Amino acid sequence: MSYILIAVAAYFLVAIEVILDKFLITSKKVSHPVIYTFYVGMMSLFALMFFPFGFHWLSFGDAILSIISGIIFVYGLLALFYAIEKSEASRVMPVVGAIIPIVTFLLSIFFLEERLRSIQLFGVAALIIGGVLISFEFPLRNKNKFFHGFYLSIVAGILLAIAFTWFKYFYDRDNFANVFIWTRFGLFLGSASLFLHSGWRKKIWSSFGGFKSPQKDHYKTGSLFVINKTLGGVGSIMTHYAIALGSVTIVNALVSIEYVFILIIGFFMSFRFPRIFQEKKDVLIVSQKIISIFIIAAGLILISVKFKQIWELLGK
Fold first, then answer.
1. Which of 21, 55, 98, 152 shows the smallest number of beta carbons within 10 Å?
2. Domain ranges of the chain
3. What is the pLDDT of residues 96-134, one digit of tens each?
4. pTM of this prediction?
């Protein structure tokens, strides 16, 4: 299977995860993004199941760098969850999705010596433009041109791009299972590092109270969280596998497909949970998002097919 198809399937699973993240955080099923990030990092230890499939010890330097990349990823997630709490998931994710391939592309040129064909560069550009277009509030009725959480989305995109580029660097040098395990150690330690902040430490400690006196609601929330993170975990493994097989820039640019899924799912969920999924439904905004989707689709075509195939599609 093409690494592009693997990435698209992965982003569908991650889109479902993001929607459930929004539900759990905004509905106060999970009281704070820090708590959510902490448990996501703790669940990364499930990567230990890959031990029989290629784990081996690294040099001290490579081990430290792998762990640092995982820690950076955790803080990228933290910024992302804060942004999702403040705004619509269908606006946050496009900004993150636009920043990640830009930063990844720049980093991959210098550190991975990655080169894309001209047609693929146009495709990446279309994915980024579509992502940015879907993020703006049109018309600009007030001074705030960007949504709440916009700047946190940028921070999240930069941190996640750095982490993804680092992951790709290690995938090019080692087997998939070993890199995945070592970087998950980083996620675990990154989550543990949240205890260093006194305010965050109190929030995390307070969340343990639900385990001492579990109620029916806690069971439901816990089950939903586990199901959600299982979907996200499978999506994450598939995303990392796609990165290992192909271009890290293209795989990251394909995140635009994820927020097309998010937009569609979030739109329908907003009818059932209007306070949580605040998707605006007026004609102008819906038209803006549809145009963005077409641009994103064009970008997907450009990075997926060769010139010869494009001419065949056009009937030349």
1. 55
2. 3-313
3. 877 887 788 788 877 777 676 777 778 778 877 876 776
4. 0.75
